[in-house]
Amino acid sequence: MNKFYFICFFLFAVSALGFHAWAGADARLQVVIDPGHGGNDAGSKEGVEVEKNWNLKFAQVLDKALETAGYQVLMTRTSDEAIEPENRLNMINSSNAKLVLVIHADREWTHTQTGPFLVVEPPNESAAAVVLDTIRPLGVITPAQFHSSLKLAQAIGQKLGVNTSLSDLSDSRGIAGETVSPNGKVACLPHQDLRYLSKPAVVLTPLFLTSASDLKKFADSDALDDFALKVVQGVNDYCQIVTKPAVMPQ
User: Residue 118: what pLDDT?
Assistant: First the structure.
């Protein structure tokens, strides 16, 4: 083998090895699921119902559904443990996630509100000063990030069958050009768990601890699975993933 052919063979072999290494890498889209609270931080309570437990229950069902659909899932907690806010923030922002689902069951003083409900962080005033070629400071929610989060919330809300107009409780910074309704189930509101995230993110409230109908509904594991499936369908729409229809066996 002359020198020229040896070099060609060597380069081909290196390229092939590189291709197989790349092909073997996990190329799945990553989703972060962040079950709120945990450990000594119980979150909201209503009678015997404790928010941290419901958050983890929904997160675990969503984890399974998203993995089954082909996503790579990163959970900020997988058990009843408290995660330091700084650790949680670093875990999410340093990930390769396409989006973030923050899970928070909630309570409501009139006992009339039912889930699901979705919240996105409004764009803030300092976003206009961000230069594209600089590192974005924490706490800056650009209009582009806000609209991505809103698109995600509305995609999930549509699959869950709720009114995806912005709630009339929404922050004025996010309602320009959007349809606003007193019955809207998507709200643009400041939220401590969204404020410093650098990725499209929503707070998803599957149920209200103060709603007897919500608690009765999700006592059934089939309802939990159905909820998770619809959230995955919304995520698919947001990510523009076309899923093949199920083929019934002959």
Answer: 98
Give the per-residue pLDDT at 169. 93
- Given a contact cutoff of 8 angstroms between Cβ atoms, the answer to whether 125 and 142 are in contact is no
What is the spatial distance between Cα 206 and Cα 71, in angstroms, rounded to a whole number? 21
* Cα-Cα-Cα-Cα dihedral sign, residues 173, 101, 160, 115: negative
d(CA 168, CA 184): 7
More confident residue, 249 or 234: 234
Per-residue pLDDT, 241: 76
The structural domains of the chain, ordered by start, are 28-239 (3.40.630.40)
Question: Coil, strand or helix: which one is 32?
Answer: strand
- CA 81 from centroid of its chain's CA atoms: 20
**Can you state the angle between helices 51-68 and 221-239, rounded to 10 degrees?**
60
Distance separating alpha carbons of residues 103 and 52, to the nearest angstrom: 9
Radius of gyration for the chain, computed over Cα atoms and rounded to the nearest angstrom: 21
* Long-range pairs for 126-131: beta carbons < 8 A, 24 or more residues apart: none
